Amino acid sequence: SSVDARIHRYWTVLAAIAAAVLAAAAATAAVLARWVIRPLARLEQAADAIGAGDLTARARVEGPPEVRRLAQTFNTMGAKVDTLVRSQDAFLADASHQLRTPLAALRLRLENLDRDVTDPGKPELDGALTEVERLSALVDGLLTLARADRARARRGGGGGRAGRGRRDPRRRGRSAAGACLLAESAGRAAW
């Protein structure tokens, strides 16, 4: 009948309108999701780069206001970490160089005392010379570490970004490399 046909037509029109509204909502949701997710993915890439040793990496400030604030905070943190690491490296290099001269002078004075010290004082003098050698080896290790850090920084922060969840096997962490160098230096000094 004509009433049933009209009801069927209204339902068809309503179904078409509902499908169009759902398609528009899905398209809008996809665009909004990309607008939020893309800046977060870039922020994650910057975090991975900093974690891999590239302390100059920064996130682009884009997206929704909350994500922009997060990116700005992240960039501020990255800049502070970079500044702290650079100042630590500079202090390490300066302290090592400043310690070398007094250690060399101390070693010369102790070696000059060798001919004036009697037999009962020889073990004490030898112990003092051994301690000077140990400190010299430690300072040499600190200088080697500072030079290695400077060379790494000149190459651009460690050779690029490591993939997510993977570590570049050619790179070692700052503390592990330092411990190896200092342990190596200490071993040469006969701790």
Strand content: under 5%
**Major beta sheet, specifics?**
none
Count of helical stretches:
4
User: How large, in whole angstroms, is the Cα Rg?
Assistant: 33 Å
Helical content (DSSP H or I, runs of 4+): over 70%
User: How many strands in all?
Assistant: 0
Instruction: Give the termini separation.
Output: 104 Å
The whole-number mean of residue pLDDT values reads 80
| Shape call | rod-shaped
Q: Which runs of at least 5 residues are low in confidence (pLDDT < 50)?
A: 158-191
Write the H/E string, N to C. HHHH
Backbone structural class: mainly alpha
Question: Could you explain the architecture of this structure?
Answer:
The chain has 191 residues and is mainly alpha-helical. It contains four helices and no strands. The protein is rod-shaped. The termini are far apart.
Summarize the structure.
The protein is about 75% helix and about 0% strand. The protein has helices at about 1-50, 65-115, 120-155, 175-190.
Topology of this protein?
Layout: H1 2-51, H2 65-113, H3 122-154, H4 174-188
Helix pairs in contact: 1-2, 2-3, 3-4
Descriptors:
191 residues, mainly alpha, 4 helices, rod-shaped
